[in-house]
Specification:
By secondary structure, this protein is mainly alpha-helical. The chain is 78% helix and 0% strand. It is built from 14 helices and no strands. The longest helix has 35 residues. About 7% of the residues have low confidence.
Length: 363
């Protein structure tokens, strides 16, 4: 009896562990940036670490089912790495440096709403305003974008007491004496994060085609990490003057961050969520995403002494509410439709990739 109960709780316990990992990941990343670590370096080393972790698993798990690599598939994987790993992570980390770790987490929850809007012109999403699910999609998307605008344009008073001593890791708030400059940075960071979410949504459109042409999830992800590593290394070599000196992590925190985001974030997190998707489905897995922001907020207030503002709370609540409306609509449509078995497999694979990559790639 006890073993049966534990078996039912395993997916929940696993996802709780995964969201804690990603919340810690955001805090470590912010701290590493505050110590002077370059965005390009962190992304490049993260992708290399993740590739080295996942490649053996992909090789042994999919060695009998992996499709043959062709020039067409390689091109798809190359642009998948550009959109889904290199560019999206670069925009997210740039936005993170302009804002806070808690604030940046809020924009992860915007991805399903962006994806819904981007997928409409391609015919990959349907909108039936005569059904409850269709209305929920529209309302959820509108609510989510309203929350994003509040996050971007309004902060309001602080809900937490400011630290009496200035912390070297503290992120300046737009409020205060430097309100003009701080508010300008805050808006820029917000726009960069929005651009990252939009870029990520376009990646989902591309990934839906890759899932049909190259359905080996582990191998495809390992290839994407490898190609992203090569892309970001080339960017770093071309743009950084002191390339070799800045390439080596200089502090213990930076070394720990690289290993943690690569192994735990992209590696263990990916495996944990893929297992939960097999057990409970993609909607169950995606539903845990907002917890990353809540846990990150608690950690960052204590560790980074971040200020929690009324606008951040209000905007985050609206974004999360919009996310759950869209997820409910997707679940409602899936339960009301009776597609063929092949269509079920295709849709499940696409949603699985979205659920896994929504947290393993951006954060």
């Amino acid at each position: 009896m006890g073993r049966h109960v534990w078996g039912d709780c395993k997916p929940t316990a696993t996802m709780l562990g995964v969201v804690v990992v990603f919340a810690v990941l955001n805090t470590l990343t912010k701290m590493a940036f505050n110590q002077g670590m370059h965005t390009t370096v962190l992304i490049t080393l993260r992708q290399l670490t993740a590739f080295l972790f996942l490649a053996p698993i992909a090789y042994f798990r999919e060695r009998k089912t992996r499709p043959k690599m062709t020039a067409e598939i390689f091109v798809y994987l190359f642009f998948s790495a550009v959109l889904g790993a290199s560019l999206t992570q670069w925009l997210f980390f740039e936005g993170l440096q302009y804002t806070t770790a808690t604030f940046a987490c809020a924009f992860i929850n915007m991805t399903p709403m962006f994806t819904f809007l981007v997928a409409l012109p391609f015919g990959m999403e349907k909108l039936e305003l005569k059904t409850g699910a269709g209305i929920a999609k529209v309302i959820g998307t509108a609510v989510g974008f309203t929350g994003a605008m509040i996050l971007t344009l309004y902060q309001g008073p602080s809900l937490t007491k400011s630290s009496s001593s200035s912390s070297p890791m503290e992120t300046p708030s737009p409020a205060g004496a430097s309100v003009g400059h701080g508010a300008h940075k805050w808006v820029i960071g917000s726009l960069v994060l929005l651009a990252g979410s939009a870029c990520w949504s376009f990646w989902f459109i591309l990934q839906s085609r890759i899932g049909k042409k190259y359905p080996a999830v582990y191998s495809g992800t390992a290839y994407m990490f490898l190609l992203s590593f090569l892309q970001m290394a080339a960017v770093g070599l071309a743009t950084e003057k002191n390339f070799l000196s800045m390439w080596i992590p200089r502090t213990k925190l930076q070394i720990i961050t690289v290993l943690f985001v690569g192994v735990m974030g992209s590696g263990v997190g990916f495996l944990g969520m893929s297992w939960c998707i097999e057990q409970r489905g993609p909607v169950f897995t995606t539903a845990f995403t907002p917890l990353i922001q809540l846990i990150a907020a608690g950690i960052n207030i204590v560790v980074l002494h971040e200020q929690l503002h009324v606008g951040s709370v209000l905007g985050s609540v609206l974004v999360i509410a919009g996310l759950y409306m869209v997820l409910w609509a997707k679940t409602k449509e899936a339960s009301s439709d009776t597609p063929s078995p092949s269509k079920v497999i295709t849709e499940d694979e696409e949603m699985s990739k979205q659920a896994m990559q929504t947290t393993t790639e951006a954060v």
